Amino acid sequence: MKIGIALSGGGVLGAAHIGALKEIEKANIKIEYVCGASAGSIIGGIYSSSGIEGLEEFYNEISNKKGFSPNTRFQIQSPSRFFSELENTVSKYLEPKIDRPQIPFGAVATNLETGLPELLQEGDKLKNIMASCAYPGVFPIVRISSKLYVDGGIAVNLPAEFVKNECDFTIGSSIYSLPKIKKSYFDKNSRTRVLSRSLEIIENRLSYYQENYCDFCFKPQIKNLKWFHFWKLQEARDAGEANAKKQINDLVQLLNR
């Protein structure tokens, strides 16, 4: 039985995927296909190339950068520069490990002209990942050949349907929970917050419908965290690991039926 995993978008919340992947490996479940959208494409791309070891190295480097520490906060002053620095960091961990075969991988990005999600599996892996992460209005559009791409999470935040097409058993890791908020939240910077909340609702619903393609889905409840809360990276990872430990036995039992 061919098993694949779909990793959702969610910005900094993507750190929660690490817990699911670690528990899957501990349970000796062999993943033969990985597909990610947005932040999920970064985690999935690194995992498919260099495994948990590569993910840990990437996480350690990112968490030591300015703004990702629990004791600091920062805003993206230059989105293009931030995007370029992220690209340079990700590129270091896409080199395959000598003793570990690469896992087939796909990144989902949204074609800006057609409005449809596209599975990017061929060509430049790093560029495919960055196309999947090009959050509109924040990061620059990515051009591949003659096509223009933005964040994959805009069209399909949990790319489970693409995994379903490739595998016999589809595991999902969906991190885009939708916490309730008070009306007073919109009193300050209301336009920006209304837009942000609206996008959260859209992406949450997209993930919800994609869960129908999953045979099993990890769903950590990451409350009060948003995709741009970079300084809460560790909190997102901890929530993902705690949830994965609770759910892994259910997955093992399902696979052993």
From TrEMBL:
Keywords: Hydrolase, Lipid degradation, Lipid metabolism. GO terms for molecular function: hydrolase activity. Residues 5-164 form the PNPLA domain. PROSITE patterns: PNPLA. A motif (GXSXG) lies at residues 36-40. Transmembrane segments: none annotated. The active site is at 38 (nucleophile), 151 (proton acceptor). A motif (GXGXXG) lies at residues 9-14. A motif (DGA/G) lies at residues 151-153. Pfam families: Patatin. GO terms for biological process: lipid catabolic process. SUPFAM superfamilies: FabD/lysophospholipase-like. PANTHER family: NEUROPATHY TARGET ESTERASE SWS (PTHR14226:SF29), NEUROPATHY TARGET ESTERASE/SWISS CHEESE D.MELANOGASTER (PTHR14226). This is NTE family protein RssA. It comes from candidate division WS2 bacterium ADurb.Bin280. The lineage of its organism: Bacteria, candidate division WS2.
